User: Fold these one by one.
Assistant:
Number 1:
Amino acid sequence: MLLILAKRLVWAVPSAILMTALLFFSVGGLLGSPAGLMLGQDATAESIAELNARLGFDRPLVMQYLEWMGKALWGDLGRSYSTHQTVGQIVLSSLPVTLELGILSIVFAGVVAIVVNSLTFGRRLIRPVATAFAMVGITLPNFALGLSLVFIFSVELGWFPSIGWAPWSEGLFTHLRHILLPLLTLSAYYYGSFTLIYRAEYDAVSERQFVMVAKAKGLGETAISFRHVLPNAILPVITYLGLSLGQLMGGAVVTESLFSIPGIGRLLVNSILSRDYPVMLAIGMITITAVVMMNAFADALYAAANPQIRLE
């Protein structure tokens, strides 16, 4: 597994560099002069030219990208135009929140979808209910689902706070009360996708010959489901997981903005509104790196779950 992971990471480096270049040129080429956007419509041409020269925006985009990438590789992501703090400090203060919310959402959605669809008892009742929730998760946008959960559980019942974030230092119960609604909102789409993908593969694997042999040997349905069918049916879910990290960032933007959570998603929205280019580029670079790394890890995990891939 480690050898496969190393190979995937070697191939991932050029992809990451190419995507960061496209990100930089898109921001610089499509949005125009950052100085003009920062100073506003009433700025004079002289003030715009002076700020461009001071920040280095008057140089060719290629030179700007090479300088930015060279500094970024050494951990220097520049300073925020809004707060004048280092971008690293700003991003690192928000990153743990998004990581916790994102990882818990994917793990929660994956575990629930796989376990529920692997159960062998009460399948006639459980599967329709699981399918109904999956359809809701896929079709209902994050903001609509989040608003519905807030209205029901915060406004009407008063069980959970509607906005805000509580760190672990305020206690486990307080932290869980603040994270539960955002967790359900962000994980709903993944639960629906995992359910449909896993169930289709589960039903196909259940018809294979080795499953019939296991039944003929007298193994129980639960043992067959979790020991034989699940490890083979989970492979498409792993593949989808590696490809869906970009969607997770989009969902985090909506969820964190809706619940006023101080994470990367909300930080990205604020940086776009304030034209804070260094923060925008840093978040884009981190997202690209995370997607590439996740795809490489998914390939290695796929190989670990499927011995045929290791032999190839």
Number 2:
Amino acid sequence: MSGDIRREMDGLGQRPLSIVIIIPRMEPCVRSPVEPREMVLRVGSLVLDLIDRTARRGNRPIDLRPREFQLLKYMMQRSDQVLTCANLIKDVWHLKFVPETNRINVHMGRLRSKIDGPNEVPMIRNVRGEGFVLSATPALAKSLPGLRALKQREPTQTNSNNV
């Protein structure tokens, strides 16, 4: 849409313009169809309504604070992806540096306690040394690239008979 407006303005040249000339020329650009955005995010049984700002897992409503809502929205938009603390600080908290605090762990702990109720399969998981992942598939956590790399770094046990 901004490209259309820019082309339209270039066509008008450098001459002084009145609002009577500009508005009719800009109306088609402004009224162009806009891509619909998702109003409800779903990951497994977890549902986040972006309009009503409500969350629920199955039939259980989840009460979220504003930052928890933003964090969950960010994670649901990137489900099944490992999210680093640096990415979360930059994209959810809008900071340009990574502070030396446990801010992410505290918020993640609170969010996890609200999302993962008793007798429910955990959806938010730690990926040791890398970050966090939100997934509806329990088996996915075992196949994440970060976990495979961590398993390769673990020292192998030597057989004491071969010494």
Number 3:
Amino acid sequence: MPLADVELPVIGAALARCAAVRAWIRQQAAGACFNGNIKRPTHMTTFPINTMESAPDGSKPALEQLQSAFGMIPNLIGAMSTSPVLINSLVGLFGKVHGGSFTEAQVQIVLLTDAVTNASSWAVAFHTTLALKEGIDPADVQAICDGHLPKDSKFAALSGVAKSMIEKRGRLDDEDINRFLAAGFGKHHLLEVIAAVAASTITNYTGSITKPPLEPPFQAHAWQG
């Protein structure tokens, strides 16, 4: 699904001569000063949503793997494929995260928490859909989307430590670590969460930068933060 180009309005010469327009421009310029600089309107940069045919050759094997995993090429992945380096980095992590010691429901708890914490709207809608598909209590899913901990104790431990990792830039204190371990997880689980957070960093940042359109299957869970 290609992103529609967004163009800034072009003020014609005749319109620019209008006194009212000139006054408005002066007012906006005066109000846009910050630290001595004037903020000027900029053109929104758009990124292609690649298909298997349009993606760079270096991205196609990774794109095929992700298409097989999801049964489709999500728009975010299509945008990511513009960079073979980026999409191939994700594929390596993707397999490890989803094939590790956590259940898929636990993985989705972490990925949804990461998306909310990073304020990545596309990823929140996507992982909300997948979390519900995994049978996670809708109340727990909604709690995470609202910035709260789920009621399930293990889910709460996972969500809490993932959120703390991002907010504290990995500098967890003893209380964070002991709370996670007290929920029945091991030290290897704590380190495994780092891999999930790393994968989320790739997808969340890509979503925030490329702003892919949200596909119809995920629109029921659109999130504004």
Number 4:
Amino acid sequence: MENGDLPMHTLFIGHNPSIATWQTGHYFANPTNQFWKLVGKSDLLNSATSFEIDEITSIDDDLMISRGFGFTDFIEKPGNDANAITRSEIESNRTIFAQRIEKYANDINSGLKRICFVGKKQWKQQFAPNLSKCGHGLQEPDMRPKHWPKILCNLEIWVLASPSGRAVISASERLESYQKLAQHLENANVDD
């Protein structure tokens, strides 16, 4: 965190880093990934700041981090096909992931308020057995994996539509969960 940066309040969780992300060191760097366009169109970044920022259409995770957003992945194995991750890798990563996120939550001045899974898959894979389905948006507080530590169970959990170019979803449906999160953040800033 740089001097003047906001403490992390929102942590975005991808499934696993793409090859482009791994090579560049920037999240959601695959050219077919629409994450940055969704951030811009939803006004998500402006909802967490007190000043206007022009639409984001390219990789700008440094700006996001300076405004209190963080990034990580459920599985830290690079690849462009999330389906190539084996069931045993998913199962062995559940506890490791929860411990890693618990450490983030404890290390960042207790400012973390929400975790946003960028795609349904990585949220459903937190459960044993995997959830059969879930919706986009804010998840119910009683819907938390049994193995999660208490600090994580007390956070808001959001499931955002997958920004992957491979995801079959309409543009308006894809944008909707990002807009709801932006509105929620804007309301939270008014309440604080």
